[in-house]
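Data availability (excerpt). The following record was deposited with the supplementary files.
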Amino acid sequence: STASTASGTAASSEAASSAVAGETFKVGIVNYVDHASLNQIVESVESRLDAIGKEKGVTFDYADYYANAQADQSNLNQIGADLVADQVDVIVADGFAGNMVLKSLEGTALFMMDLMKEEFFAAGFGGEKNITGTSDALNTDAIMNLIVAANPGIDTIGLLYDLSQDASTQAIADAKAFCEKNGIKVVEKNGTTTAEVQMAAEALVAAGVKAVFTPTDNTIMTAELSIYESFIEAGVQHYTGADS
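Predicted structure:
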């Protein structure tokens, strides 16, 4: 589904229809952190901008205005200020934290990627002008049903996530509700850094869980290459929120 404001959608449509052949638009792209899922979003955005530019006969200059915040809030603040100073036409941001910082940049159009609808309105984006975006709400029940189908009679499922990641909140709540409804015990482990996630993953293995669920959590996704071998060696299935 799409989380958007009427004003933001109208503004973007008007800009697209009034583009003049040969015109150049400056697009600031902000990547919250370097991992497969968010990198895939950035690559897709760039590819789509190239296609639209060719179709409309215009240029989207994003190469000069790309920044990776490396999950650092102070970096996000500086990146936002720099893009406004560069007078970009629009900022495209992935990751909820980036969206929260960039929301305060008045006068600059903002397109948010990778944001769940409930977070969009809870953060107060609903009444803002020049803000639109896409939603990636996770169908947690579908993943939990897959775990049960692959493991008939499973009695314990591990949940691995970062408590500070807003994008994980609803998915984890849904996973817990599913397990409670189906009489499945939950073992929760958390981490805010890759090292902590590694220890949490090892703790889940030690607890003897057969399957682990992780939502679209940037901290876990960043640590994925550090934990997947531990799960494979222990025969623990890992079900994630993003196929990348």
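Summary of structural features: The longest strand covers residues 24-31.
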